[in-house]
Amino acid sequence: MTAQAISYYDEKGQGRAYLSADAIGYTDENGRERAAMDARGVWYYDENGRARAAMDSKGMRYADETGTPRAQLGAVDTVDQATGKMSLYPAGVALFDEAGKKVWQAPQ
Q1: Beta bridge partners of residue 23, listed in sequence order
Q2: What are the tens digits of pLDDT across the range 60-93?
Q3: Residue 6: its H or E element
Q4: How far apart are CA 50 and CA 34, in angstroms?
Q5: Which of 8, 20, 41, 67 has CA 20 to 30 A from 97's CA?
Q6: Max CA-CA distance within the chain?
């Protein structure tokens, strides 16, 4: 016996969960994907289909209910205060306000 994937369907015949050789996921009663994991990372989506949390090779990110970034852990854009040059710091933390503006980060 061979199989490409295993899927779960609810009593209405709606696909709700799947497991394949390279991915796993869950959909809600409206058919919207709510959680997924594959070789690229892990994602959680809200009831409107917006990515709210993600973890991948760049780190972890969290967004609020409007989709605005609120926190990031891992690869963080930093600005050299002396030169103004932007670079990607591989192990940082950043917090954002409700408008998505960075309000705090480490390293500075």
Answers
A1: 38
A2: 999 999 999 999 999 887 777 778 888 777 888 9
A3: strand 5-9
A4: 9
A5: 41
A6: 64
CA 62, distance to chain mean position in Å, is 7
Task: Give the predicted TM-score (pTM) of the model.
Answer: 0.76
The CA distances from residue 74 to 30, 33, 36, 46, 80, in Å, are 33, 25, 20, 23, 18
Phi, psi of 104 (to 5 degrees): -160, 145
Q: List b or e across 34-56, with b for residues whose CB sees 16 or more CB atoms inside 10 angstroms.
A: bebbeeeeebbbbeeeeebebbe
In this structure, are strands 33-38 and 102-106 parallel, antiparallel, or unpaired? unpaired
Tokens of 102: 């960075």
Q: CA–CA separation, 66 vs 69, rounded Å? A: 9
